[in-house]
Amino acid sequence: MGAADTLAKYFDFDEHETNYRTETIAGITTFLAMAYIIVVNPTILAPAIFGQPPGEIAPDDTTTIAGGSYTFIEVQQMLAVVTILASIIAIVVMAFYAKRPFGLAPGMGLNAFFTFTVVLLLGVPWQLALAAVFVEGIIFILLTAVGARRYIIELFPDPVKFAVGAGIGVFLLFLGLQEMQLVVAYDATLVQLGNVLENPLAAFALAGLIFTFILYARGVTGSIVIGILATAIGAWVVTLAGVAEPGTITPEGVGGAQYDFTPLFWGFLEGLGMIADDPLVFLLVVFTFFFVDFFDTAGTLIGVSQIAGFLDENGDLPEVEKPLMADAVGTTAGAMIGTSTVTTYIESSTGVEEGGRTGFTALVVGLCFVVALPLVPLITAIPTYASYIALVVVGIIMLQGVVDIDWNDPAWAISAGLTITIMPLTASIANGLAAGIMSYPVVKAAMGNRRDVSLGQWLLAVAFAIYFVVYFAVDAGWIAY
């Protein structure tokens, strides 16, 4: 038996009726769909290190980290490298231990929560926030090892489990359309259609999206990858030909990369030393990160697994503790080198849609991140809106999950409906889960079916209620960090 056959056997290719070509295309697709994080994560996290909102920082402004002085651009370059390394660590665990086709990276939303809520709004030093993420990761590892995370996830009401995929689909669709500027902000109604006649970016994004839809409808293998690359290449051709102004439909420039990220590691160690200064504040930060990350990750795993056909008849993911361990290890390691919480990516659904079914897909994603290390400047050459084409296509595909919901049952209709709609409306998978989980036992009780609700489901609903009370109290200034 050759090395290729041995690897195929290890990843259970025959069981999943897949092959190297399919898994490789799926891995590349997932990577291209989530590669934007290499650029976006540093953009979001760097202001936390400077302690100022993005609009108040100039590229050549400097800050002190572990005794050294670094510009804003240099900090972003460090964070780009750290983003890649944290992703690789988590993906290796996902590929070889969990053997699932999921990509991981520092989470969108979670990184914004780290910077804008915890650091800038609440005034927690970024070093202490990293220490909190590290402790959260350790707690996740321990809870995953004893099966506690799996037990909690299996408490999710059935309508919530079956609605998560569609909820994430609408969330992806909305995010993609916003980044492509086909949906834009409007005061009276919050959002409206973008004007493609006035906005070259929106027009080019729409052309790329239509092209991708045509490829997908015709059953072209790798249609999402082809759509992303074709859109990016086309944008650069049009720009270099002088038809579009530089920076209009392409990134303004190609950045560099500073590979020495050790200052961020020393900053993390400083954060560990700050814990003793105010342990109550630290515990509150850890609790906040823990709660948001736990349910974001759970929702993503269930949603993507539903599309892949991994869920059993009860809507549960068998051996869910294995992929959960990947994000726990990634979060712990990522915090040590300077990034916020690592989580499973909803963009993994793009690779799943291309046929990815095993850990080899994840391995390909990890290898793509390895290749990206020396190619960070080229990654930044792909317009973000081109990557988001994948989110729109997959978002539509994920809506198929609504057919598994019993809309004639009030408990199912209300909890599933809230799960699906609250996710995109609040830009949070965790909030959508919360709405479904809290409403289910209440509606069941109102219908006279209290016995259908387990004690664990009531406790989970109460836990969410307590979390929101604490969150809103902090937001209102009634509780201070």
TrEMBL record:
Subcellular location: Cell membrane
Membrane-crossing segments per the record: 25-50, 78-97, 104-122, 128-148, 160-177, 197-217, 224-244, 280-304, 324-346, 358-378, 385-405, 411-437, 458-480
GO CC list: plasma membrane
Molecular function terms, GO-annotated: purine nucleobase transmembrane transporter activity
Keyword Transport appears in the UniProt entry: yes
Membrane topology (UniProt): Multi-pass membrane protein
Keywords (A to Z) from UniProt: Cell membrane, Membrane, Transmembrane, Transmembrane helix, Transport
PANTHER family cross-referenced by the UniProt entry: XANTHINE/URACIL PERMEASE C887.17-RELATED (PTHR43337), XANTHINE_URACIL PERMEASE C887.17-RELATED (PTHR43337:SF1)
Family the entry assigns: Belongs to the nucleobase:cation symporter-2 (NCS2) (TC 2.A.40) family. Azg-like subfamily.
Protein name: Uracil permease
Organism (species): Natrarchaeobaculum aegyptiacum
